[in-house]
Design goal:
Two copies of one chain form a homodimer. The first copy, chain A, is mostly helical and 385 residues long. Chain A has 13 helices and 14 strands. In chain A, the strands form six sheets. A three-stranded antiparallel β-sheet of chain A has the order 2-1-14, with no helix packed on it. In chain A, strands 3-4-5 form a three-stranded antiparallel β-sheet. A two-stranded antiparallel ribbon of chain A has the order 6-9. The longest helix of chain A has 20 residues. The interface between A and B is large, with 41 and 41 residues.
Chain lengths: 385, 385
């Protein structure tokens, strides 16, 4: 049984990780959150990245919804929402990539995931504070994402059209989760329509049958493309997507889909695991050629946290021993290496291949209040059930 | 004395590195060069990156000019030039970033360094094969670079104008070298005018007096900006720029400029040197905060090769003992770690912090026939003089 882990995850969430963000991240002067925080709690950069602003709103709103109605948490969610609502978008409703501390735009809306996380944030906020304008922001942002879907980077897309048109895994993957997150606003019909198409795309196109692995980029027609992008694997991405798909399978009572997602998850995990030093590689090349990403062999927090969620979900669905053993193995690696034994609080994010802390940060440009607390919450509540 | 190294560098260039590219890199079917070559000589990717195509043309033309009139080398330079001349540019004369094997465009001309290296290639080619159209390509490309200078990425620039306008070090740095490379086409007056302004910019603005270091990004007004980009240091970049500036100082018989460049070079080298494991860091943060670049602590070939060139030049200018000692130290590290003792040929490019080979490639998307042979040639000929 894995149930005894529930308490461990709950304690870490409520006594270490959430208090870290409550204490360190609020910008009381200009609104929004600081995310660039080092292991001494110092703010080392004040820029505001929309992904991370939105994710923290979502996280605190989710805590209110799923843990307890806590006014302090709600205030924190609202604090970020005020900032984002006022300063996060350009005149067309696209979400910027980043702002300076005061909220002035720094980087244009080239990155559709800013929009995805903003929709997620305001969708969740509406559930704890049902103001119509929050629902409106979530819905219009979601519609805009669907509109931009074929060319998410818009005019910032540097790819020459026609020679090698690729589609990337990240957006379909996020849509699996985002649609479910917004079901209360979109209605189940729209959720069905969006998720049926993306699940089909993931399980039949991005999933590469010959290798049993999920590709990060495929041709528009769904074929493998032998190039740097086409050969790229991101095991953590694929594993995270599989727990999104398990959730969709459970929602649709489609046991085959859940089983298929579990199977792919295990294949990714076994392939991505570093047998020499432990942990899961960040990037790999399906032909074992040198990848472009110089950081390919590093061990990243979100990869491991999302794997624990996927394994906890698998275990509760099937109670099988393989899930239990893998959960224990990944749990041990993750808690021993990413957790900050000295200072407590939020976990470290970036380890080198050997598992040593590579950057002494708790948050930065790409790491905020999201994967660690969401993962702890998901594992806790999954195993407690 | 360092002169005894001259022979070592010459032998490595002529017996190992040049033969590697002669043997492995020619695409006899579609023209141009392969650059993605692993340590067994296998071509693992066939895309053609304009930077690297142009640099190899330049390198083989330079060998013809500076080593010997070798018909085989000239043929190799012409082989790449035919491919690039036919397929490298868009309708406006901007150079693409990459092409597929056949020469069809893959990535749009968002990167002005494609243009810089193309101008360098055709400028040098004209010296060994004085066809007017080569001069024409080099000159019009150079004019286009100057026109695009204020906003090199053009419509692909994602920065929101007005909030934080930065200027980057790389273009002024390259212009120091490129102008000199094209002096036979531009005339000394234009070279003076371009280089005076960029040398002033580098030595008085990018050079940050308080720290004694060169910043990668400064405000348009020339100030330090406390942000990820503003705090960024790239010691190898700064060191390479200093040997370009030494060359300009020698050309202008400006001893003060040469001395100042030497001083800055040493400050960068001392700051960038990894006292624990040896080698020079790739990226650093001037406030010692966590940098964005996850690969920041890796050791890259070009950084070390360009440092050897800078030290050899410094030594021949001043004969000082500090330059000699540093040359020997960097030489030992570089030859022990980057050189491929097992297979010979071109050197490795990417080591982890501890100096272990990180990618088993001799060439890739960013590494081709350029820094190693150019560095070996420069050190050889500098020390032999």
């Amino acid at each position: 049984m894995l149930n005894h882990y529930a308490e461990t995850y709950k304690n870490e969430l409520l006594n270490e990780v959430v208090p870290f963000w409550e204490k360190n991240s609020l910008d009381k002067e200009y609104g929004g959150y600081f995310t660039c925080i080092d292991n001494s709690g110092e703010i080392y950069d004040t820029d505001k990245f929309i992904w991370l602003q939105a994710r923290q709103i979502w996280m605190f709103a989710t805590l209110c919804q799923k843990v307890q109605k806590n006014e302090a948490w709600k205030k924190i969610a609202m604090h970020g929402a005020r900032f984002l609502e006022k300063q996060g978008r350009d005149e067309f409703g696209n979400w910027y990539f980043s702002l300076n501390q005061k909220g002035e735009p720094l980087v244009q809306p080239y990155n559709i995931f800013s929009d995805c996380f903003a929709a997620m944030a305001f969708g969740k906020l509406y559930e704890i504070e049902p103001k119509e304008r929050y629902a409106e922001i979530a819905k219009t942002t979601f519609e805009n994402i669907l509109k931009r879907r074929e060319n998410p980077k818009g005019k910032y897309n540097k790819i020459y059209r026609g020679t090698r048109n690729l589609q990337n895994f990240a957006l379909p993957m996020i849509l699996c989760n985002l649609s479910l997150e917004l079901e209360h606003l979109l209605g189940s019909e729209q959720v069905d329509s969006v998720t049926d198409s993306v699940v089909n795309l993931i399980m039949n196109k991005f999933y590469h049958k010959e290798s049993g692995l999920v590709l990060e980029n495929i041709s528009v027609g769904g074929e493998f493309v032998d190039s740097f992008e086409g050969r790229l694997l991101n095991p953590g991405h694929a594993i995270e997507a599989m727990w999104f798909i398990m959730n969709l399978g459970i929602r649709k009572k489609d046991i085959d889909l859940v089983k298929k997602a579990e199977k792919i998850m295990f294949q990714q995990l076994e392939y991505g695991w570093d047998n020499e030093y432990g942990g899961i590689f960040y990037f790999m090349d399906i032909k074992n050629h040198p990848p472009q990403q110089l950081e390919h062999d590093q061990k990243l927090w979100w990869v491991h946290v999302e794997t624990l969620v996927a394994l906890a979900k698998t275990y509760t669905c099937t109670q099988n021993d393989k899930a239990k053993k893998w959960f224990e193995k990944v749990h041990d690696y993750t808690w021993n290496h990413f957790r900050d034994k000295e200072n407590g609080g939020e976990w470290y994010g970036y380890l080198n291949r050997k598992g040593e802390v590579h950057l002494n940060l708790k948050g930065g440009k790409w790491k905020g209040c999201f994967h660690v607390p969401r993962g702890l919450l998901e594992v806790w509540q999954t195993l407690e059930r």
